Structures are given as structure tokens and as C-alpha cells.
Amino acid sequence: MTIEEATDWAVGVDIDIPTAARMCDYALGGSRNFAADREAVRRAKDAFSNIEMVARSNRGFLHRALRHLVAEAASLSSSTSDPGYPPHGRQRSRDQVQEPEAAGTVPPAPLRADAPEDVTLTTKPTLAR
Q1: Could you tell me the pTM of the whole model?
Q2: Residue ranges of the chain whose pLDDT lies below 50
Q3: Rounded distance, CA 64 to CA 7, Å?
Q4: Is 114 exposed, middle or buried (0-12, 13-18, 19+ CB in 10 A)?
Q5: Angle at 91 between CA 90 and CA 97, to 5 degrees
Q6: What's the burial of 24, exposed, middle or buried (CB within 10 Å: 0-12/13-18/19+)?
Q7: C-alpha Rg value of the chain to the nearest Å
């Protein structure tokens, strides 16, 4: 192991044993690989000369699969307005969110039991958050 190869991301990694992930990284021109990985790729090229093309094809497939899954998840989340579970906190109806002034309005009650009926509240009720 050289000083250049001993990076902080490789703490606890046995750099003398090649791994498929680091071999693929080397085949794609990456920098997170070690001598054992590079040697394993060189030996694999003797038996299978198109290893770089296979690595690029695999990377392209993974990108396409991920884009498909993200798009599918986005369409599923936007196609249903009711997720099937209650929201966090207090549940408010759509009308309360669109017109908060109309939500929860009740006729003003007297402040005290002996207060006259014409006494009204001076503050507007607010929604609990």
C-alpha cells in the first residue's frame, strides 16, 4: 500500500482484495480503485476484451432504471390526492386551507357568564398550527 492509495475513504478496506465495484470504477476511468483492482481488470481483459464496454452499458442501464423508477414514483404520488394515511399534526380540510377566515368561525360567546349578550370578541380566531 502506498501513501497515495491510503485515502480517508478507504479506512477499514482491504485494498489487496479486488472488488467488483472498484474494478468497474477502474474500467470506467474512475479514481477510487487500487492496484489489486487494476490487476484484476487487466486479467479479465485477457479473457473478455470488451470489459469497458460492458461496464459502460451496465452504468447506462442503472441510470435508465433509476430515472424510470423516479418518474414512476412521481406519477404515483401526483395521481392520488389521498395518500391513505392522516397527515401529521392537526388535520384541516381543504376549505380551511383555502379560506382560513371561514374555518372554525363560531358566533362570539360572552366572555363571562354575567357579561351582556352584545359583547363581542375583538380578536379574530386563528387556526391552531
Answers
A1: 0.50
A2: 1, 3
A3: 31
A4: exposed
A5: 105
A6: buried
A7: 32
